[in-house]
């Protein structure tokens, strides 16, 4: 009896020991990765916030609190107005969709109320933006606009082209592997090297390839990368400045962005299409739906999680994009090609204003997080998960 | 009239349908080929221009009359590429060695070992994928400069360590390997444990040999990321000692300006290693990103 408990106890001890050993092995295994990720991935976020509170130029200066942030917004009041406007816009869209549903005429009422709140929110948002523009950092706010233009110019086009190419490749195509390989090529090749070729193709010379191509259609030579005027203005619409839409210089960079990224979307879409069960298509075929119907009513909804994912990383990617923008920008395109990531880098690398740069980087980070959340909310509800 | 005739004659209907299908197929191929031309043309233009004389690049011939192979030699020498090329190779090799070491171990631990705080740590790792470089860049620069904490050797600016150490672990690689390791059947581990295997031996002798595909994917992503890196090397190298190829090419672009033929030869040189690796492994590469669906 006594012996039995001893055996039992020692067994329990060894079991405990084994478990402890298991735990230790786990920690030991992740330790090398943990050290590097903690030091170079997580610590810098905290340190950035710390730096942004100082007048930091190459070396640490005096503590100045929110001054670096005030340089961006002008005043906290401006930011408050802007955020209030945003809040109302969100509220308005909620009212539009969900309010008064128990009432008889509920939907119409909800639409009216929602629209009113939306308009109010929009007005307040624009007012806040205007106030910020008056007293805040115009360069930074401009760079946000440029970034949004860049994102809107690239991501939707990349999604649509990627889906179309993937859908075609998904049919019985001879040489499917070869096509896929070619489409993916721009994505893996160094963007510095390929951007150099685009510089040559889109140079402002009359004999450049791009100018010869448009000359073929009877259009006069353009300055491409060097043209700060909005594309719309070149098309004859009377607009000017950043409010007039992306400049031709930015459009050139957008074309490069689309070219280098479509292949990635195609490959991901292609694998997503492969995961749609064949039976669904067969059933639809028997019901007599046309090919087009099947694309709209089966493929699009079934592929929506992939679309959602690609849109998300597409937007995050454009907000983070740096290399090809840095190489393709020209001084004569002025601020029409300076996205926020470029601006932050210049503040830091050229102007040596580390404190200002970190504050701007953190605002950019918050904008990215906000966009991600909003996208999650807006698109997430429409995604169809099998 | 035509319609009814078609219905009456089933053979004709099939034929017409057939013709329509061929036409549709042809249209698809035309779109695909057009896409292929658009994607490949800049590469063609790069190669073709790299073999032209300066005069030919200005008059914009489509192809050179006589390929000027000497351009490559000249660009290589002008741009100091032997130094940069060697730097890039060494930096890539070093980064990959460290990356494989950290991510195989961590991927295994997250996938197959139970320990406290595992999920929180894994979530923390994944969260780092969302953070823009703009935020981490400046503190990391100060770290490498030796401003925040003292480093062995004072500063790491213009050293091999600055270019390799920060990239020796990333959440993406760990995530990718974890997904694969977690799927390995427990029976294998039970059998190995009875034979007296511990985790490390099991990992090295059994798990790694059957995980060649995901390990290759991590390697390939690491390779392109390291080879294509630009922003960070631009920041932490001020002299040629450890400047990699991309920064070298950028400098060459600034200097060579109008000498298009040299620029293009330089660009081709920087792309060749990536192309070789891509063509050798392209199946695993595209499958790798397709199955994980993540961006490297």
Q: Please, could you describe this protein's structure?
A:
The complex is a heterodimer of chains A (386) and B (296). In chain A, helix 3 (76-98) packs antiparallel against helix 4 (106-135). Chain A has 15 helices and no strands. Chain A has 3 domains: 1-30; 65-136; 137-380, MetI-like fold (Orthogonal Bundle), CATH 1.10.3720.10. Chain A is mostly helical and 386 residues long. With 296 residues, chain B is mostly helical. Chain B folds into 2 domains: 2-50; 79-292, MetI-like fold (Orthogonal Bundle). Helix content of chain B is 76%, strand content 0%. Chain B has 15 helices and no strands. The radius of gyration of chain B is 26 Å and the shape is flat. The chains are: A mainly alpha (386), B mainly alpha (296).
Write the layout of secondary structure elements.
The complex is a heterodimer of chains A (386) and B (296).
Chain A: H1 2-51, H2 67-73, H3 76-98, H4 106-135, H5 138-170, H6 176-188, H7 191-201, H8 209-216, H9 231-234, H10 248-274, H11 278-286, H12 291-320, H13 323-328, H14 340-349, H15 354-380
Helix pairs in contact in A: 2-15, 3-4, 5-10, 5-12, 5-14, 6-10, 10-12, 12-15, 14-15
Chain B: H1 2-8, H2 10-50, H3 54-59, H4 70-78, H5 81-112, H6 118-127, H7 133-145, H8 160-164, H9 171-182, H10 186-194, H11 199-210, H12 212-228, H13 231-236, H14 245-256, H15 260-292
Helix pairs in contact in B: 2-15, 4-15, 5-9, 5-12, 5-14, 9-12, 12-15, 14-15
Radius of gyration of chain B: 26 Å
What is the CATH-assigned architecture of the largest domain in chain B?
Orthogonal Bundle
CATH-defined fold name of the largest domain in chain B = MetI-like fold
Beta-sheet strand percentage of chain B? under 5%
Distance between the termini of chain A: 60 Å
Largest two-chain interface: A-B, 91 and 91 residues
- Oligomer status: heterodimer
